[in-house]
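Input sequence (217 aa), recorded before submission:
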Amino acid sequence: MDVTDAVMARKSVRDFLPDPIDDEVIRELLEKASRSPSGGNVQPWRVWVINGESMTAFLKHMETAPPSASTEYDIYPANLWEPHRTARFEVGEMMYATIGVGRDDKPGRLKQFARNMEFFGAPASIFCFVDRRMGPPQWSDLGMFLQTFMLLAEEAGYQTCAQEAWSVAHEQVQSFTGAPEELMLFCGVAIGRANPDHPINTLVTKRLPVDEFTTFL
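Predicted structure, token format:
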């Protein structure tokens, strides 16, 4: 698989097979992803791996841990503007349509959102943290690291879903991982093999045409 193949194949998978993934596979993916660029080579990412027995323990922890008092950060800006507002709305409608959940089916939507907290059935995940003292440039570095990790996973035959939804459960994650308070949870990334029979995995999201986001001078 070349880079273009991996880019075109990668998508957010929201239902996984239970097939296990070895820790050494994840270690190799992380080692390769660490070659991602970062300003001044500061490498701001800090990662915790949940897999196997720790996945079982974490899911049990989520059943009893007190909910977080607040979100770790705002996933979207308030009063999101166009064209971003429409893009966000459309992808939500497309995703719920694949599983027959209508716009007014609030219980159905909440049930699907709750699957975030189970990694959509994935056998493994990473939690990615960044030091609270870091600024927007280092968050950009973190994004490049995550994209590289997900493309490498695709190359290795595994699929992923980057989950900023974990910002609503950051205290539960912090208490389980033991990550120090100076680290901010950015996201989880579910890792496994996509369930080819689940309709939610048929979703292919739209992208803006190049001419809508690019100016050639």
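Checked by second reader. The longest strand covers residues 183-192.
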